[in-house]
Amino acid sequence: MSNIEERVFSGIQPTGNLHLGNYLGAIKRFVSLQDDYNCIYCVVDLHAITVWQEPSELANNIREVTAAFIASGIDPQKHIVFNQSQVAEHAELAWIFNCVARMGWLSRMTQFKEKAGKDREKASVGLFAYPALMAADILTYRATHVPVGEDQKQHLELTRDIAQKFNNDFSDRISSLGLGEPMMVGDEKVQGYFPLTEPLIGGPAARVMSLRDGSKKMSKSDPSDLSRIVMTDDADAISKKIRKAKTDADGLPSEVEGLKNRPEADNLVGIYAALNDMDKASVLKEFGGAQFGTFKPALADLAVAKIDPIASEMRRLQADPAEIDSLLVKGADRAREIANRTLADVKEIVGFVGPRR
Ligand code: TRP
To answer: Which residues contact residue 322 at a Cβ distance below 8 angstroms, ignoring those fewer than 6 apart?
Structure first.
C-alpha cells in the first residue's frame, strides 16, 4: 500500500441518547460525502470506555449508532461501517502513536481538561491518551479527510502533528523500504507514510445548540430532556420540544446579520436550514419578519417530516440486533484488510520483526 488515496474516515461514540446535533452535525454530512469519496464510518466503542459505560447498555448503544448510520442512508456495501473494537489494529497503532505523541501535546487538549474536570488525578489514562487513539483511527486507513465538529479541530491538528513527527522520525526508513510518498514538511521534502489529514468542518448546523440555552451545545448529558431532540423521539415529542424551545421576543430578521447576538433564533434557523438542505439566508428569505408563533410550527413539521422516517427505520433495524451485529462483523472484516496492510508497513518502518512479506 504505497500511494495515498483520498479517503474519508469518521467516528461517533456509542454513549446513548443520539440526538439531532449528532444527526445534523455529523451523520447527515457522512451521508452526503458518500458520492464523492470512499468512506469509512466507525462506531468508536474504545473511545466510549474512556469514561464509565454500563456494560449492559454499551452493546445497545453501539447498535443504536449503527442503526442511525444505516437508517440515515449510509450504504454499508459501498462504504465501510463497523465498530472500532473489532479491528485490533486501531489499538495497536494507538500504542505506537502513544510513543510518538509527547506528554505536552496531550496536556494541551481542551477536551481532556473539560472532561477530566478538577480532579485530573482520577481521570482514566485512556481519557488522556484518547487523541492518540483518534489519530490511529484515522491513520490506520491513511484517511485524507475527516468530517468532524468544531470541537474536534484540535484533535485533528494533533493527528497531523503525530503524522508529521512519524514521517519525519522515520523518513529514511520509509524511503529505503519504498513506502509512502514524497511530501513537504515545512520547506523540507521528506518521504512520508501518513497523509496530513484535513478536517471537513461546516454546514449550517455544524453546531446544534441546546433548545433551552442557545449558548450551550446540544448534549446527551444535559439534565433537561427539553434541551435536545433525540433520534428516538416520536412526532409529538419533537413538536413539543420545538414549541417549548427558548426564543427571544422579536420576530425573525430578514438578513443573516440580524441573527447576531440572538443565539436561540440563530440555532432554530440553522436547524431549519440543515434539515431542509438550504442555507440560513434562504430560510430568512422565506420567514423574515415572521414571529416564532409562525416559524416554530413550520420547523416542527419539517423536523417531524425529516426525523420521523429515520427514527422508525432505526426502530425497525434495532428490533433485529443479530442483523446489525452481522453487518458490523462484515464491515470489520473489510476494514481489517486495509488496517492489516498499514500495520504491516508501520511495524516494518519502526523496526519490529515479523513474518516476511
Ligand atoms: N472524538 C470524536 C468525537 O467525540 C469521535 C472520534 C473518535 C472520531 N475517533 C475519530 C471522529 C476519528 C473522527 C475521526 O466526536
So the answer is: none
CA of 160 to the centre of ligand 1 (A): 14
Burial class (CB in 10 A: 0-12, 13-18, 19+), 174: buried
Q: Are 283 and 267 in contact (CB under 8 A)?
A: no
Q: How confident is the model at residue 2 (pLDDT cuts 50, 70, 90)?
A: low
User: Ligand 1 center to residue 10 CA distance, Å?
Assistant: 6
Note the pTM of the prediction, 2 decimals: 0.95
Q: Write the pLDDT tens digit of every residue in 295-344.
A: 999 999 999 999 999 999 999 999 999 999 999 999 999 999 999 999 99
Here the cell at position 226 is 427539553
The per-residue pLDDT for 195 is: 96
What's the mean per-residue pLDDT of the chain? 95
217 is catalytic: yes
Question: Which ligand 1 atom is the nearest neighbour of the CA of 44?
Answer: 7
Beta bridge partners of 198: 145
Ligand 1 near 46 CB (within 6 A)? no
**Does 44 sit in the ligand 1 pocket, CB within 6 Å?**
yes
Respond yes or no: is residue 306 known to be catalytic: no
pLDDT, residue 204, reads: 67
Catalytic one of 217, 246, 330, 347: 217
Nearest CA to ligand 1 atom 3: 12
Which domains occur in the chain, in start order? 7-204+320-350 (3.40.50.620), 225-317 (1.10.240.10)
Summarised one tens digit per residue, pLDDT across range 102-126 is 999 999 999 999 999 999 999 999 9
Task: Confirm whether 244 is a catalytic residue.
Answer: no
Q: Burial level of 284, CB count in 10 A (0-12/13-18/19+)? A: buried
